[in-house]
Amino acid sequence: MTKHDRWDEVPATDDLKARFRPVFDRIAAGSVKRERARILPHEEIGWLKEAGFTALRVPVEYGGLGGSLVQQFDLLIDLATADTNVAQALRSHLALVEDRLVAPRAQGEVWLRRFGKGEIAGNGWTEIGAVKIGDTITKVTPDGDGFRVDGEKYYSTGTIFAEWIDTYATRSDTGAPVIAIVKVAQPGVSVSDDWAGFGQKLTGTGTTVFKGARLDPEGLVPFEQRFRYQTAFYQLVLNAVLTGAAFAALRDVAQLVAARKRTFSHSAGGAGVPVRQDPQILQVLGRARAQAYAARAATLEAARAAQRAYETAQGADKAADDAANIEAELQAAAAQSVAVDLALRAISDLFNALGASSSDSALALDRHWRNARTAASHNPVIYKERILGDHLVNGTEPVYVWQIGAVAG
Predict the structure, then answer these.
(1) Which of 229, 216, 226, 185 is nearest to 327 (CA)?
(2) CATH number of 327's domain
(3) How many CB atoms lie within 10 A of CB 356?
(4) Are 86 and 75 within 8 A, CB to CB?
(5) pLDDT, tens digit, for every residue of 39-50?
(6) If DSSP codes are grouped into helix, strand and coil, which group holds residue 272?
(7) Residues of the domain holding 158
(8) Are the beta carbons of 148 and 98 closer than 8 angstroms?
(9) Measured by CB atoms within 10 angstroms of the end CB, which terminus of the chain is less buried, N or C?
């Protein structure tokens, strides 16, 4: 028997798509209004909880749907097509679910039961300012029968919607790096929506401050026990966001082209041909459709590699697990390079299918490029492409855990 007993049968992908399509359609219907008025998607994330999306990977016996990683990322692309903000807001939650799935059952099941009931987690990992690379200012300190957490985090994506915060810290007594799963609803935690980026404005990203926040023992996890393919997993969420942004732009522009009445006298079809029949305009949309398709295909192929890493984590074959984790990281990086390039080109070129009216702020078409560009700025692709080349030529193993911080001097 593996580390985990068999959880349950995985539902068919078509069944899952049918289950969530109405919810995604409702989310898409309000995306422009939310963007223009900066309305955080609290209600929409509530719909996803009720439908079971946030428990997609949670085993059936704990109240979830028992889906695979490929199914999860396939559906996450669909959700990102409806609203990239909502998809990325769940990034840390999905990762913590994955981590607790890989953990020994005695450690993971308390969290899987909570997630199966619809509770979700946000993020508290990155520190900004003068913190040096390798340092972590946020501390976990023994306190009575539990612990206290003190520190400040930025880029706290999804935390404003969550019941828990997946927090990276160090122990003040031993200096060991740890994960602290901190309850949001308590006096020692404050969460702000102060993300100032030009894209992905509604992801709930901002500052989280811990001042003597209570941490129960089951929420303290040594960092070395974190699931090994986590960096690949986090990148796959961003790949899904990028792919969804391309599909969303394609959807919106196709609808505008189909309804467009005005054309140019020097168009390929001439003054008497509707825009929807102009061969050059159709080529623009066809090419963008192919680019979005390729980004999706690359992301799902990388998700299959992550699924293999999940499966080897359940066994005792370390060599197989090492190989699966290397492959998951490399494939996620390759898919990242493809998704960044294809999504940004597709979205930008789609404006060629419309006139100057496409810049009307009421349409909010610019959100697709801004959102994709913002997602593409995470985990800089230039470094990942170098790592891919270094592995190909020199056999250098990819970096799995990395930090950002100030350079001395």
Answers:
(1) 229
(2) 1.20.140.10
(3) 7
(4) no
(5) 999 999 999 999
(6) coil
(7) 139-225
(8) no
(9) C
